[in-house]
Amino acid sequence: MKHLLALLFLLLLSGCKLIHSNHPVSPDPQSSVDRMTPVQDQQTSQPKQLQPDLTSAMDTAPSTEIPIHIPVKPESVDNTPPQSAGNHGLWERLRQGFQLNHDLQRSRVKSQLRWYSSNQEYLNRVVTRANRYLFYVLNEIEARNLPTELALLPIVESAYDPFAYSHGRAMGMWQFIPATGKLYGLTQDWWYDGRRDIQASTNAALDYLETLHKAFDQDWQLALAAYNSGQGNVRSAIRKNRMQGKPTDFWSLKLPNETRAYVPKLLAISKLVADPEQYSIVLNSIPDTPYWVQVDVGSQIDLSQAARLAEISLEELYLLNPGFNQWSTHPEGPYHLLIPVEKEQTFYANLDQLADGDRVGWQRHKIRFGESLGLLAAKYNTSIQTIRQVNRIKGNLIRTGDSLLIPVALTSPDRYVLSSEERLKSTQEYLANKFGHSAQAYTVLSGDSLWTISRKFNVNLRALARWNGMATRDILYPGTVLKIFTLEEITAPNLPVSNQIPGAIRKLNYKVRRGESLSRIADKFNLSVNEIKDWNGALKGKKYIHPGQRLTLYVDVTQTE
Length: 561
Description:
Distance between the termini: 101 Å
Number of domains: 4
CATH architecture of the largest domain: Orthogonal Bundle
Number of helices: 22
Strand order of the largest sheet: 1-2
Structural class: mainly alpha
Oligomer: single chain
Shape: globular
Helix content: 25-40%
Radius of gyration: 30 Å
Largest sheet: 2 strands, antiparallel
CATH class of the largest domain: Mainly Alpha
């Protein structure tokens, strides 16, 4: 009997081992077994060609430089059914499309990672801005089967600010310079700048990135470097390294400091998004649903009127439609607007009740002696082509005594939607109140031009034109009275007056380049020399600036060229 019991006991033990070996307990998804380090995670999930060994002695730092604390949880059986990406919000869907090697062991990546992980407030601001745009950007990236890390590139470029403007004249969420923007089909004129348009700029940026990716043999790091500093600069650096027998990967190239930090910034942000808890960062939730919908308005419409139809603030309308420079949509299109998705029904219901004549304001103007289409366009804050189109004028000839119908902004207490004359009056009153006795009236004499007057009073040509609601090439007529603000004895910084678009003023930290003068910088950013001196106390009493000097500028991005 004893032997029989012993035999049964041994059989029972062997059966338990067999069951345990065939049915292991599932580890907790957050356990130290499943949560690999960033480099390990990328190496197991990426295609082989995207992860060459680019480690160099220069960029390798001890692994303790950024401590990674991974809490170890006891193994347990997780009976919760798997959730879809949508239930986790947009961040989880973004993570699922990551393809790049985040190169955590690079010292440049670690440095950026330290900065981002210690600036929670900055990340909060960026996420708040991105909330409007990220769903669309991610959709477009997924449709092209691109690495979803690219949806984080606007954080590096502009902190997801569609009105961002750089000293190099790059503009918008994706920071296109004028030439590259035109090359990729982004319209830039008086009414509209496609570099700030959310849909147009996103699609142009992805077209550009795909082109660069192909040009640099499917190397995303080189493609991103070229997006920042230009294809020519990266190719030049590659040629130099090749001639010296050096590696030609991104980490080995001698590139501008900004570019050397650019790619690591994207990789660091991607790593934070991949595992925010690991770095004690909180990413505020962004719903995995559309924020806005595109509505067809059919023809030109005053943006303040459109905001009222959608029952949203004008500021919200401009944040969704930042491409528009003026008070209305472009007379020649695009004839669509983006509005919050929950306002679509409201907008169309109100639009159906709107009379055609109420889409924009109309001003009947009786032509006086000496007036031209250019002068009228400047006066009413519209374009010559628009006046021609509305009044069926083929050339530039207009006759004294005739009447023209001119579209103008609808009158409103809101300073952004005042008529052209009211905006001009508002600007001049602001400057006069701010600088008091520094404002003076000048009566135009025969032979005067805006250029000669600007030289006479030592003010910026464009500023002089802006103060008087004119274009720089407008013809002056004797007897016209101009307001001139010499801005002397200023005690507090003045900012440009943006009379149309909320949030259009941007502060720039500008680095003076070789050969530049205050006058040249003022012309470049549509400012006056005295404005620049006002914002930079160190310039008082000095005649010259030097290369490398830093200047603070306040630029109205809708008034730059």
